[in-house]
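Onboarding guide, step 5: your first structure request.
Type a short instruction followed by the sequence, for example:

Predict the 3D structure of this protein.
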Amino acid sequence: MKGLTSPELTEATKETLLVQRGRIQSVTQGDVVLADIPSASSYWKYRVGTILGLLITLSSVFFHTETEHSLALGFMILASGGIWKLSELWQGWIRYLPQAVTSRLVLSRGLELFSELGVYRTMGRCGALVVFSRAEKRVLVLGDEALDSAVGDQGWERLCGQIADYVDDDGSIDEAAQYAFDELEALLEELFPMDYGVHSPIRELAEPDVEVSDA
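The system replies with structure tokens like these:
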């Protein structure tokens, strides 16, 4: 998959998606929300584990070389702090974690965002959330109950792959986001069009803008 270490959406793309989202809300029973996040997790457990492994290794080295205790302790403290700070500044190390781990965390964060951003608040239970998680280089699309039943796991997997193909080599996700909105809009128009002939309860929607999360 092409890199997702990109800057956020351009203002022009945000405005375009804003208008498109309003159209989706007016002609279908669904909604589409976008979340562009730096990473799905702080990965603090893995960072702590790395530091502990380093400390054990250094302790063994200093023990066998009979290094002065105060010097050894000071070096280990500096090394631990340096690794912790480096892991914050450079998240490329995340790609070396098992895919099962990063996929699970991206899904978990996506489910949190689904609730936080109010994607479930649609009349037809057919809202969709598109997540770009850049550190993990993952695209995730989550659909509410009715939409998920209609699309199925294979359909979502295929759509995620197609969206990822539109991520530019420089990491820009503008084209990918636009493609995602276009595909989901067409899907919602086909499967869940707004039926103005039916007297239905007042529709409860999320705020009509493109959501960009810094979580």
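Each response can be followed by summary notes, for example: The first strand starts at residue 31 and ends at 37.
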